[in-house]
Amino acid sequence: MRYGHFDDEQREYVIERPDTPLPWINYLGCEEHFGIISNTGGGYSFNRDARLRRLTRYRYNSAPLDTGGRCLYLRDDALEPGPAPLMWSPSWQPMRRELDHYECRHGMGYTLIRSRLKGIEANIRYFVPLGDSLEIWEVTIANRRSRAADLSLFAAVEFCLWDALDDATNFQRNLSVGEVEVADGVIYHKSEYRERRNHFAYFACSAEVAGFDTQREAFLGPYRGWESPAGVQAGLLTNSIAHGWQPIGAQHTRLQLKPDEAKTVVFLLGYHENPTDDKFETAGSQILNKRSVTPIIARYRQPQEVEAAFLALRHYWDELLGKLSVTTPDPHTNRMVNIWNVYQVMTTFNLSRSASYFESGVGRGMGFRDSNQDLLGFVHLAPERARQRILDLAATQLPGGGAYHQYQPLTKLGNNDIGSGFNDDPLWLVLAAAAHLKETGDWSLLEDRVAYDNQPGTEEPLYAHLQRSMRYTLDRLGPHGLPLIGRADWNDCLNLNCFSETPGQSFQTTTNKDGKVAESVFIAGLFVLAAQEMAGIARHQGEVDAFSEAANKMEEAIWVAGWDGEWFRRAYDDFGNLVGSKECQEGQIFIEPQGVCIMAGLGVEDGLAQQALDAVADRLATAHGIVLHQPAYSRYYLHLGEISSYPPGYKENAGIFCHTNPWIMIAETRIGRGDRAYDYYLRINPSAREGLSEVHRCEPYVYAQMIAGRDAPAHGEAKNSWLTGTAAWNYVAITQWILGIRPTFEGLEVTPVMPSTWDGFEAERYYRGVRYLVQVERTGPGNEVQLEVDGHPIEGTVVTLPPAGAQEVRVIAKVGPG
Ligand code: GLC
Ligand code: GLC
Fold first, then answer.
1. Alpha-carbon distance 453 to 410, whole Å?
2. Is the pLDDT of residue 82 over 80?
3. Which ligand 1 atom is at minimum distance from the Cα of 370?
4. What mean pLDDT do residues 212-233 have?
5. pTM of the model
6. Residue 364 CA: which ligand 2 atom is closest?
7. How distant, in Å, are the alpha carbons of 156, 300, 472, 578 from that of 135?
8. What is the pLDDT of residues 613-626, one digit of tens each?
9. Which residue puts its alpha carbon closest to atom 7 of ligand 1?
10. Which residues are bridge partners to 15 per DSSP?
11. Is the bond leading into 64 cis (omega within 30 degrees of zero)?
12. How far is CA 209 from CA 81, 190, 195, 256, 267, in A?
């Protein structure tokens, strides 16, 4: 069952009814200012940091789902103001009055909601303009009745007192600190501005204001909710000024519309900072200095400026999405590669795992391994931003090569609460840096000087950071010569050194074993993969490759201690016992080592990779994707940690952890099985699952972190949409391995391993400033590639870089029998 459809032309997903199984959200903002918006106008906004600079409140665990947020109300004033005047929310929530027509279009950085009730049409456009810190709600109301309409339009937001966690917990203080100012139709929220903050929020209306409220209970009425504000019912607000309690911004404007007349009102929800020494109107006063914010508000109150800003946003996305576009025989592939997957990659780059409808925005900072992996899909979009991110990440690396698991986006400092010791973390930096070099060919990245742990004076070239990352692994080898796992490896919940018996303890930070025994086959595979990147870098630098010998040894260790006979094992636990082996009762085979070891090339030549992948197909693959391991852990195992804390089929306990599925897709392409790879690709492709929306339940336009595995009662149900490494990895799997258009240190490689049913496809790729037009033609079965570049056949599969000044390169790839 579907709840909407894709409009690929407009690059929008069109939701046709408001009561989707879960709120289906979108992100406003692509730089520093963000809003999360649901298909009924729910959600919240923040500037840079979803916890520390939260503009509006969000209620967690709320029932009904998704209330509050961006509240709009229409009231038919022509009717006598009886006990029940005709009132509704044009975005359905919060009033939830049934509409005659409803449609929500989520697009690239904007959302449109259109609705109609009793001849009154509303057309709302929400977006964050590039370069400014505010959210625009442009509301156009049209009268399609045959008589004049007399309407009131109300818009309301509930301010958050900045630190979202404190706001939700520290009432003894917070209920006394709320402050606002109202001037010229603008409500300013300035709690804590009197002391150390130099920022404030505002909620402005472009039309003449008939009244306002800034105290929540004055607007709602005591014991009433956002679905039935007393002020809307009365058709009159009280011009309340909040002192403490719950500051809000509620604006009221009246609209008189002749038949077929339409009017546009713009609401602005903004964030502004003043210089710390110029915070007030005059020295000694407590009145906000509005000198620098007033021009911004004045500008966006004008509809033509709003239109221009919207067009600029569209243009920005045209450019980004134009970096790679493909035309394949499959519409799901086309729309994910050309539109939604890229869009999600940008979102994960911006927000890591901080703020979604599943990530609360108060918890996690930027993850070290997460952000590095997100870069793998992002680097071609905005290489300069990617470079800065690599340097920020490297600056949180510790002198010993380890890394803080997370850092805070506002300060860019490593997060001490969670600390370091996730032993896979540092290796991901190597993969991210290599991806940047392959994309840009700008080797100066390696020379950028970066400190350790952000300590001035410790700067070294980035290249040295990468070398320390590699040595970190080699300095921590266990009894079988495999890397020690530390707190966890990629699988945050495989906590082999945390024997926790106390409820509520952290599985990751409570470490009560010395960590000298438990080893990870996953990290071993990742090391081999990273060593290949280091070898490529060394080759280019004309240096002796310092890590390939260690990588060879690591491969040997994997074959000796990490191969189970039919697949790669997962780990050794603190007792030296196997995890992910036939010998185990539960958890006999895990997906991660099959993916990473084969991506690193292990077993590709001798058929063992194929054996491991056949085991994955037999034991782990389901119609909804590939589960993390089997059999699921049926109970809690003290020595395995959080992984066995989840009920079977969920999350790391044998859920379909989508992040890992593209590793298997890539592995399948490594052994030439394009049909398999593509089949796995489609199983979790959100667009291909659109028709199953009643089962999948999350948005059909973005990947979710997890789909419930076969051991779960709700097999096939997705959770944790949007902020997941799945976005970047699927993008890499489909574009670089299945479609096979892959940046290398030497140039752009074209080696598709596509489905046998495809005759070919076309792609346009901007690479190092040159436009590559790639035409792939299947000549028969098989994956052998013959390239023709600008009409001349070439040897090999890497298109050598064109001479300086070249604008365009035409590549024809004939794929078939060798
Ligand atoms: C989450 C984390 C990621 C981890 C994965 C598996 O997605 O963000 O860092 O690798 O879970 O545990
Ligand atoms: C990962 C896992 C999650 C776990 C968390 C611990 O993100 O997906 O289940 O709770 O790590 O930090």
1. 15
2. no
3. 9
4. 97
5. 0.97
6. 12
7. 13, 10, 44, 53
8. 999 999 999 999 99
9. 724
10. 4, 104
11. yes
12. 20, 21, 30, 14, 11
